[in-house]
Every structure is written in C-alpha cells, then in structure tokens.
Write a structure and sequence with these properties.
With about 80 residues, the protein is mainly alpha-helical. The protein folds into 2 domains: about 1-35; about 45-80, no CATH class. The protein is built from 2 helices and 2 strands, in the order αββα. It has helices at about 1-40, 70-80; strands at about 45, 60. It has a two-stranded antiparallel sheet with strand order 1-2.
Length: about 80
C-alpha cells in the first residue's frame, strides 16, 4: 500500500508540474504573438505616389522600412522565403 501511495503521489506531482509548465508556455506564446502582431502592424504596404498625381509610379513599398513590398521582415514573419 505504501508503494501504491508513493506512485500516486509521484504521478500527482508530475501532472502538476506539467500543468505549470503548460501554463508558462501559454503565457510565453501569448507574449510572443503580441510582439509579432505589433511588428506586422508596423510593416504594412504603402504606395509610391506619382509626382504628377497619377497612379502609383511603382509597386507598393513597406510603409515602415521603405523596401519593396512585401518587405523582408513581413516575408520572414509570414513564413515566406
């Protein structure tokens, strides 16, 4: 009976440890997701304006880093090569 009680207690501690680890991972995931969303909000498409008021003179650019759209930051965060 002592062995059975020991195993059950050990299992409870293991389960509790896994629950705590999972909660920590969930908090970390939420924080990282918020950071990625903040960066994506910065790197949005903008357009070059034609100096004479016509249509855009060239394809879109990133409004944050001014690189061709989609910019390297946006591609990296969206998983594109």
């Amino acid at each position: 009976m002592t062995t059975h009680g020991h195993v059950a207690g050990s299992q409870r501690r293991t389960i509790e440890g896994l629950r705590e680890a999972n909660a920590g991972l969930c908090r970390e995931h939420a924080a990282l997701k918020a950071r990625v969303e903040a960066v994506l909000a910065l790197h949005v498409e903008d357009e070059w304006e034609d100096m004479l008021g016509g249509p855009p003179a060239k394809p879109g650019i990133c409004g944050h880093c001014a690189k061709d759209w989609p910019c390297p930051t946006r591609r990296a965060l969206e998983g594109e090569p």
